[in-house]
Amino acid sequence: MKIAVTKFLGTNCDLDVCHAVKLAGGEPELVFFTQENLDSYKGAVIPGGFSYGDYLRAGAISARTPIIKGLKKMVEEGKPVLGICNGAQIGLEAGFSKGTLTNNLNAKFICKWVYIRVENNKTPFTQYYKKGEVLKIPIAHAEGRFYADDETLDYMYKNNMIVFKYCDETGEVTEEANPNGSIDNIAGVCNENQNCVLLMPHPERASEKILGSDDGLKMFKGMIDYAKRI
Amino acid sequence: MYKATVIIKLKKGVLNPEGRTIQRALNFLGFNNVKEVQTYKMIDIIMEGENEEKVKEEVEEMCKKLLANPVIHDYEIKVEKIE
Fold first, then answer.
1. Which residues of chain A make contact with B20, given a CB cutoff of 8 A?
2. Dihedral, CA atoms, A164, A167, A169, A171, nearest 10 degrees?
3. Which residue does chain A place closest to B18, by CA atoms?
4. Rounded distance, CA B39 to CA B19, Å?
5. With contact defined as beta carbons under 8 Å apart, do A123 and A190 qualify?
């Protein structure tokens, strides 16, 4: 069960992601951004970091490198593709879902534990969660404010493309629980086919109890089990 | 040779936290008449081309493919001939 873990210049969460994929029973393999063909992999994770120093816009440069062609093909073929933090920014820049991620409302880098609520448990990554389940997972980003215009947002709700929302400990979606000013507290989205999930929080940093939470591990387990079936 | 200048700004209605933070700092300094601050990104591109129109077309393509994010950005392009 080989899973591609992409590496751009400035990716720094790749080894953490590899560890989480292994914990979930997968076989991670680091793949450099120059590789275009990803046919031998059953799924892919785009880890976080600061690819290309966030030059121009976070994820903008990475989204124009050769590996994007292979990732796009995977998304189109229905293979599970997960973008985390900078990986989510790259995925949205590459057009894998809709909307964009831009500067936090308080104009600061935010690094802290947050709670997110599962809005859609029909994706490979969220299949082992209950709808409405609250997960404790950390965030670490400066450009994580999700934005889409009203028409796009409407389309995304109609097509079940909203996967996670920031909430409080009890699962209430409140303004106080919104760390970065994301529209409707949105923390994670997916494509129409539901096989590509892009989220700002870091599930790999919440994949073992010793880290403070293992709420994120099921995302990788869901991914691996889904990949086995395709 | 031509110099194309691209000015990338946020679309109307998209919040600009950087501009808002600068505005607040100016207010702290006593410039209480400052009501809004917008920040832009400006990119100069030195390039070869047949004529100003062709250069502009090409830079427009660059904006669509990389320089601007159509979800949140508007952009302006100015082209001038240089030595």
1. 107
2. -70
3. A107
4. 6
5. yes
pLDDT digits (tens, 9 = 90+) for B30-66: 999 999 999 999 999 999 999 999 999 999 999 999 9
The CATH number of whichever domain residue A8 belongs to comes to 3.40.50.880
Q: What confidence category does residue A74 fall into, taking pLDDT thresholds of 50, 70 and 90?
A: very high
- Ordered by where they begin, the domains of chain B are 2-81 (3.30.1280.10)
What is the Cα–Cα distance from A184 to A194, expressed in whole angstroms? Answer: 20
Q: What is the pLDDT of residue A1?
A: 86
Judged by CB atoms closer than 8 Å, whether chains meet at A105 and B15 is answered as: yes
Quote the ipTM score.
Answer: 0.82
Neighbours of B54 (CB within 10 A): 12
Report d(CA A68, CA A97) in Å as an integer.
14
- Token pair listed for A105: 């409302």
Number of domains in chain A: 1
Neighboring chain A residues of B75 at a CB cutoff of 8 Å: none
**What is the b/e burial string over B14-25, where b = at least 16 CB atoms within 10 angstroms of the residue's CB?**
eebbebbbbbee
- Cβ A56–B66 below 8 Å, yes or no? yes
- Check: CB of residue A189 under 8 Å from CB of residue A99: yes
